Structures are given as C-alpha cells and as structure tokens.
Amino acid sequence: MSSYRFKQRKMRWINLYPPYLGAGIRFKGFSDDGYACHVEMKLRWWNKNLFNTHFGGSIYAMCDPWFCFIVLDKLGPEYIVWDKSAAVRFIKPGERTLKAVFKTKPEEIEHIRYQADSLGKTTYVFTAEILDSNGILVAEVDKEVYARRKS
C-alpha cells in the first residue's frame, strides 16, 4: 500500500495476534493498489468444531478489521474510522481452507470522504464473500464502517 499507515510488512505482524493465531487466520497481503486485502483460514485440528468444520465465530473473526483498515489507510490520518456493525450469513459449512478478499473501490472511498466532510460523519456497508478452496460460497459478511474527519 502506498499511504501512511498499513504497510505490507508491518501488517504481517497481525498474524501473531493471539485470536488470529489460535483460529488459524492469516493475513496474506494487500493488492498492489491497496484497495483489497487477502485473508485465509486453514482448517486444522485445533480450530474445528464437533462437526469438523470451521467455527462461525472464527469465520466472523477473519472478516473483522480489514475494511476498516483499508478505509482508514485511504482516507488518511485526518480521519477517524471504526467498524460499526457486522452481519454474517452462513451459506454452508466451511470444511476446507477458507479465503476472502475484502475489496473496496476508489469511488467508494471518495463517497465516504465526501459524506464525512459534508455531513460531519458517515457510515458505509461493504460486503465480502468467504469461499472455500474449491471456490464454493461458505458465507457472506456485511461490514458497516463509520468515518468522520478529526476535529
């Protein structure tokens, strides 16, 4: 990524964050333009439930901060950005490695910037798909991100 905060190398340290480490969640990297983030979670003996599938909470956890990080990075240090809410729709059990790409578009970031500047604050809902290693949809996640300019 090109801006001030979430450089690729520094973000790799998030893989050592105990909840991610325990769940087997791995940050794989940002896209070259910084508008997308790649994350995966392998199914291991220590992170599967009684049904030999991924825990729903772990699927949620793999989605938690990424849209917020991208928006904060793209808006810059003069903005405050928080995750506000989430909704997870479980489609089918995750029985393999799960992968997600959290994608944003420059127009979405500019819309957030415009709304935050003109209204004082804003929220925006992003959607991501969680796929298994065969490309089968396992879950969809809506993440609501809050943003405002620092006073």
Order of helices and strands: HHEEHHEEHEE
Kindly report the CATH topology: Thiol Ester Dehydrase, Chain A
Radius of gyration: 16 Å
Straight-line N-to-C gap = 26 Å
Q: Strand order within the widest sheet? A: 1-2-4-5-6-3
Mean pLDDT: 93
SSE layout and pairing:
Elements: H1 8-11, H2 18-23, E1 25-30, E2 36-41, H3 56-61, H4 66-75, E3 79-90, E4 98-103, H5 106-119, E5 122-132, E6 137-149
Antiparallel strand pairs: 1-2, 2-4, 3-6, 4-5, 5-6
Structural features, described:
The protein has helices spanning 8-11, 18-23, 56-61, 66-75, 106-119; strands at residues 25-30, 36-41, 79-90, 98-103, 122-132, 137-149. The chain is an alpha+beta fold and 151 residues long. It has one domain (8-149): Roll (Thiol Ester Dehydrase, Chain A). A 6-stranded antiparallel beta sheet has the order 1-2-4-5-6-3. The protein is elongated. The model has no long low-confidence stretch (mean pLDDT 93).
Features:
about 150 residues; Thiol Ester Dehydrase, Chain A; 6 strands; single chain; 6-stranded antiparallel beta sheet; alpha+beta
Summarize the structure.
The chain has 151 residues and is α+β, with helices and mostly antiparallel strands. The chain has one domain: Roll (Thiol Ester Dehydrase, Chain A). It has helices at 8-11, 18-23, 56-61, 66-75, 106-119; strands at residues 25-30, 36-41, 79-90, 98-103, 122-132, 137-149.
